[in-house]
TrEMBL record:
Protein's UniProt keywords contain Transcription: yes
A single GO molecular function term of this UniProt record: DNA binding
HTH tetR-type domain span: 5-65
Organism for this UniProt entry: Bradyrhizobium retamae
Coiled coil: none
Protein name, per record: TetR family transcriptional regulator
Alphabetical keyword list: DNA-binding, Transcription, Transcription regulation
A family per Pfam: TetR_N
DNA-binding interval(s): 28-47
SUPFAM superfamilies linked to this entry: Homeodomain-like (SSF46689)
Gene3D superfamilies the UniProt entry points to: Homeodomain-like, Tetracycline Repressor, domain 2
Listed InterPro entries: Homeodomain-like_sf, HTH_TetR
Organism domain of life: Bacteria
Length: 193
């Protein structure tokens, strides 16, 4: 990683807690520069706007999350354990950092406004990865979809839809981890032979 990339990474690391603390609208480039230990002018040499900086942070977070999801699904254990680890990695990288923010809903909305393409591409990749894991488990007889009359892609898409709902409930005060575990227990029950 070159010096410019290291500087950008340091800025993105410094910016996340500022966005969590103040929300997107109330965060200024001055706040981010202060958190990064640099002048505003130096910050503008790396990122021309708060929107560009936020989008870069979103792209980085989604890329990290997907690497961790791939590793979890390629790991050891039954398909349910691997899916649980993959979902946990996805949530840990993309949802949990905002859990303590009173502005979490605004930050998620800002992400969809500024980084919709990044977010939707990651979701599509997640559906594909989950569908492949389910297809492999179906082929080995580890799961059944007979009672559901569904394909692995259908089930993967429902998993993602449920995770979105659980995320939204978390913003409203529900426990992300507990709600996710409950959903995954339901999934295990529905797909087990």
């Amino acid at each position: 990683m070159n010096q410019s990339d290291q500087k950008s990474e340091a800025i993105l690391d410094a910016a996340l807690p500022v966005f969590v603390r103040h929300g997107f609208r109330k965060t200024s480039m001055t706040d981010i520069a202060r958190a990064a230990g640099m002048s505003r002018a130096a910050l503008y040499l790396s990122f021309s706007s708060k929107e560009e900086l936020f989008r870069a942070g979103s792209a980085r977070a989604h890329a990290r999350a997907m690497r961790k999801v791939e590793a979890a699904l390629a790991g050891d254990g039954d398909v349910f354990s691997r899916i649980e680890m993959a979902i946990a990695a996805f949530q840990r990288e993309l949802i949990a950092p905002f859990a303590g923010s009173g502005d979490a809903a605004e930050l998620f909305e800002t992400n969809m406004a500024l980084s919709r393409d990044v977010t939707l591409a990651a979701r599509a990749e997640l559906v594909a990865l989950l569908a492949q894991a389910l297809t492999n488990a179906l082929a080995t007889g580890a799961i059944t979809l007979d009672a559901l009359h569904a394909t692995p892609v259908d089930v993967a898409a429902i998993i993602i839809a449920a995770m979105e709902g659980i995320k939204d409930a978390q913003v409203a005060g529900h426990d992300l981890l507990e709600d996710t575990r409950l959903f995954l227990r339901l999934l295990r029950k529905a797909l087990s032979r």
